[in-house]
Amino acid sequence: MASSSSYNPPCAACKFLRRKCIPGCVFSPYFPPEEPQKFANVHKIFGASNVAKLLNELLPHQRDDAVNSLAYEAEARVRDPVYGCIGAITFLQRQVDRLQKELDAANADLIRFACNDVPLQAAQPRPPQEAAGVRNVGFGGGGGGRLYQTGGVQISYDVPWNDIYNSHGGGMDGNN
Amino acid sequence: MKDSNSRKQGAASPCAACKLLRRRCAEDCVFAPYFPAEEPHKFASVHKVFGASNVNKMLQDLPEHQREDAVSSLVYEANARVRDPVYGCVGAISSLQQQIDALQTQLALAQAEAVHMRMRHYSSSAECASPSTRGRRSHNHHPKSSESFWH
Predict the structure, then answer these.
(1) Are the C-beta atoms of residues A104 and A142 closer than 8 Å to each other?
(2) What does the record list as coiled-coil region(s) (chain A) (predicted)?
(3) Is A31 touching B (CB cutoff 8 A)?
(4) Do A159 and A75 touch, CB atoms closer than 8 A?
C-alpha cells in the first residue's frame, strides 16, 4: 500500500525556500520544521548555498555541531548587526583579563603571608614587609596574551575594535 | 572633467571585492572603503563564508559610521570559520568560558587560602603579643606540654 508510507513534512529549509524536500536533503537532519527561525537566521546571514557547501565539506558526524554554531552566530548577528558574536568574545575576554588580575593579586597576597610567616616563628613579630620577589613572580602570565591553549584548541586573534567597542558600550545582549 | 576624474578613479585598481567578483568597481561601490585591493584575502574569506550579496545587504542596512566595525567583525568571523569549519568563532567563546571557569575556581581557592593564612597570622601574632601572667616564656605553643612550664 503505497499510501501507507509515512509522510515526512518538509524541513524548515525547504519550507522556507518553498521547494520540495527530497529524501537525502542536506538540511533536513539539522533544520526540523518545528524550528523555522533557526534556518531563517542562517539563511539571512550565510545564505542557503553557502551553508549547503559548508555541510557537504564536513564529515557527517561534524555537521550537527557546525549547524549549531552557524545558528548561534547567525542569531547573534541578527541581534547585533555590527558586532555579531564578536561582542560576546570581547565581553568574555574582558572577564578573563579581570579575573587574571584578581588572581595575580590574590597570589601576591599569599606570597606576602608566606614570607611573613618565617619572621613570625622567631621571637618577635616584625611588621609585614613587601616581598621583593612578588612583582617578579609570574602567575598566569598577565592579561596581555591573546593566544590561548585550552584542551588542544589554540586560538590567536586580535581584537582591533576594543577601543571602539568601549566607546560604543556594546554588549552581549546585542543592543543596537 | 567629472568624466575624466571618474575615469581616473575607474582606472585606479578596483577594490578587492570587485576584483574577485570580476566586475567594474563603481564609484559608489559599497565594498571599496573596506576591502582595499592590497588585502585580497580579507574579502576572499568573507565572500566564502557569507557571500558577497549577503555582505552587501548587511552593509547597506547599516549607517555608514558602523560599517567599518561591522566589516571587521565579519572578517574575524569569516577567518575563524575558515580555520575551524565546525565551530568557527563559537570555539573561541567556548574556550573563553572554560578559561573563566578555571580562573574563578583558582581565584576562590587562592582567596580562601589567603583568609586562612590571615587568620593564622593574626592568631599567632596575638599569642606572641599577650603577656604571660606567670612570667614564663610561652614560645612553646603546645598546650598539652604546658605543665612543664608551670613549675
Answers:
(1) yes
(2) 89-116
(3) no
(4) no
**Nearest Cβ partner for B54 among A45, A102, A164:** A45
φ, ψ dihedrals at A154, nearest 5°: -110, 120
* All three cell numbers of A38: 533557526
How far, rounded to the nearest angstrom, does the alpha carbon of residue A145 sit from its chain's CA centroid? 17
B contacts of A140 (beta carbons < 8 Å):
103
Inform me whether the C-beta atom of residue B116 falls under 8 Å from chain A C-beta atoms. no
Amino acid occupying residue B112: A
pLDDT tens per residue across span A140-168: 333 333 333 333 333 344 444 433 344 44
Residue B84 makes CB contacts below 8 A (sequence gap 6+) with B91
pTM for the predicted model, two decimal places: 0.67
Q: State the complex-level ipTM.
A: 0.71
A173's grid cell:
545582549
Cβ of A137 under 8 Å from any chain B Cβ?
no
Cell numbers found for residue A6:
509515512
DSSP assigned state of A11: P
Instruction: Say whether B100 and A92 touch across the interface (CB within 8 A).
Output: yes
Give how far A4 is from chain B: nearest CA, Å.
39
Q: What is the largest CA-CA distance in chain A?
A: 99
